[in-house]
Write a structure and sequence with these properties.
Elements (H helix, E strand, L loop, with lengths): L1 E7 L3 E7 L3 E5 L4 H11 L2 E6 L5 H4 L2 H7 L4 E4 L9 E3 L4 E4 L4 E7 L8 E5 L6 E5 L2 E2 L2 E2 L7 H12 L6 E4 L4 H11 L4 H15 L7 E2 H7 L8 H11 L6 H13 L2
Parallel strand pairs: 3-4, 4-5, 5-6, 10-13
Antiparallel strand pairs: 1-2, 2-3, 7-8, 8-9, 9-10, 11-12, 13-14
Helix pairs in contact: 4-9, 5-6, 8-9
Length: 257
């Protein structure tokens, strides 16, 4: 797959998947960069995938559907104007003109009905995870609970390590600053931070990451590590009883970091 990041707003990425004639977009919060790219490249919009209902992910649907009447797939447990195909875990989304298939995962946490899409076919897989997982971080719990977040992250962690992670925001450097506080001694994380700083200095995206990379450096996927449990206990004043409690305390800490 040829996957293009289209920057939007301050730090969003709209992901566009293309071949020589057609394109699929994921979470188009703004139609303008999508329409500009389609026009410049002479591409036809084929379909749209939506992960959740927040405006910075769906705000461009109306203008895109006015441009081209295409299927829009989105979460079964959320109602988004313009989404005509409601999907949930166990469903498969097929985009015939691009010869693409995606498995749907239910990952409520950031929002109550949040879903993610995992590509099928020739490895490496591509994970479009919206705002549930970020590089070195995870999404805020606006509508979900810590156990739901733990379940969602476990689904991602179970994917092959070379799965590419296409999250929807360029939060990597700020997340890495928190990761350094949560797990002070992680040489692989420090090396990753240097690479990401160089990318941003060159005005290049830090994404995609990979599942293997995130399992090595993302504190929210490492709540079984003694060092993280110790820093969480020191910050909150109470040792977490288990990994879910550690995750909840870590997320609460990040909210005020």
């Amino acid at each position: 797959m040829d996957i293009i990041p289209l920057p939007a707003f301050r730090d969003n990425y709209i992901w566009l998947i293309r071949d020589g004639r057609h394109a699929l977009v994921v979470d188009p919060g703004d139609a303008a960069p999508v329409l500009a790219y389609l026009s410049h490249e002479g591409l036809q919009l084929a379909a749209i995938l939506v992960t959740h209902h927040h405006a910075d992910h769906v705000g461009g649907l109306g203008a895109l559907l006015a441009h081209a009447s295409v299927p829009v797939y989105g979460p079964f447990n959320e109602r988004v104007e313009g989404v005509g195909h409601l999907v949930a875990e166990g469903d498969t989304v097929r985009i015939d003109v691009l010869d693409l298939e995606f498995d749907v995962l239910d990952v409520p946490a950031h929002t109550a009905g949040h879903i993610a899409y995992v590509s099928r076919g020739t490895p490496p897989r591509a994970l479009f995870c919206g705002d549930t997982l970020f590089s070195a971080g995870c999404g805020r719990l606006f509508e979900g609970s810590p156990p739901q977040l733990a379940s969602a992250l476990a689904k991602f962690a179970a994917l092959p390590g070379d799965t590419r992670v296409y999250c929807a925001h360029e939060y990597t450097l700020s997340n890495l600053a928190f990761a350094a506080a949560a797990e002070p001694h992680n040489p692989e994380r420090d090396a990753y931070a240097q690479r990401c700083k160089a990318l941003r200095a060159a005005n290049r995206p830090t994404l995609p990451s990979t599942i293997g990379q995130e399992k090595a450096i993302n504190p929210f996927l490492r709540c079984d590590q003694a060092q993280i449990r110790d820093t969480v206990a020191a910050h909150s004043g109470m040792p977490p009883a288990d990994a879910v409690e550690c995750l909840a305390a870590l997320r609460a800490w990040k909210d005020t970091f």
